[in-house]
Amino acid sequence: MWHYTVGEVPPWDYALGEYQSIMDLKAHKDYVYRFAFSPDELTLLTVSKDGTIIAWDTTTGAQRFMCEGHQQGLQVLVSYQKFHVVSHNLDETEDLKAECKAYLGEGVRLADWNDILAYYQADGSMADFIAELKIPLEYGNPGDMEAIPNTGYRISRNGELRWQGDRHYFFARHDHVKRADFLAHDNIDNYLLSLGSWFGKGGFALCYGDLNSTEPPSDPSEPPAVILSPPESQLLDQ
């Protein structure tokens, strides 16, 4: 199985729980911030900040074609209800809130941890949330000291982008088993999803609102201090 990072593109071997050098794909001059496979998985498209889109042959690593001149910005990858996963190339000091509004319109803002909590507390299906937004597990094994790259989704918490210094907030999927080295500020349903903070440039973020509206979404309300899990956790099919 392949997993692509922002920038370099090493493949992750889930069976071994480590990176395996299958092939090197080199051509972009800047970060790769979006990728997609063709339905038959024989072609991989990579989109770079350098303005190029390249189609790769996944069996040989050869380029099929290259397109130049696209404009880089926030890109909506998938949506579910009012939640929208976007790719971006911002570092922890830049303002994702402003970027969401600039690229996606007045009806959308950066999602807040409280938005996800509100969805959960309103009996929203976390299985649907994870499946529809295509949120992967953050690790190969719970004992891993490092996360699989680009499995965290940047958000705010109580309207704040960062926890301390330049450590930006993000959430990750843990399926009720938190990774050993993960500092969790909060969690949903006994660590089905965990709220963390870290450094880093580019990757994915979660936005919230109506893409077709000019009315700004309301600010997230702060939930109760303690979030209790339901009697039966919303376990995901493995």
Radius of gyration from CA coordinates = 18 Å
Shape: globular
Uncertain segments: 1-9, 226-238
Q: How many structural domains in the coordinates?
A: 2
How many strands, what sense, and barrel or not for the largest sheet? 8 strands, mixed
What's the mean pLDDT score? 80
- Give the SSE string: EEEEEEEEHEHHEEEEE
Compute the separation of the termini in Å.
17 Å
Secondary-structure-based class equals mainly beta
Number of strands: 14
Number of helical stretches of at least 4 residues: 3
Helical percent range? 10-25%
Approximate strand percentage: 25-35%
Keywords:
238 residues; four-stranded antiparallel β-sheet; eight-stranded mixed β-sheet; 3 helices; mainly beta; globular
Question: Can you characterise this structure?
Answer:
The protein is mainly beta and 238 residues long. Helices cover 11% and strands 28% of the residues. The strands form 3 sheets. Strands 7, 8, 9, 10, 11, 12, 13 and 14 form an 8-stranded mixed sheet that branches. A hairpin with a 3-residue loop joins strand 4 (43-48) and strand 5. Residues 1-9 and 226-238 have low confidence and may be disordered.
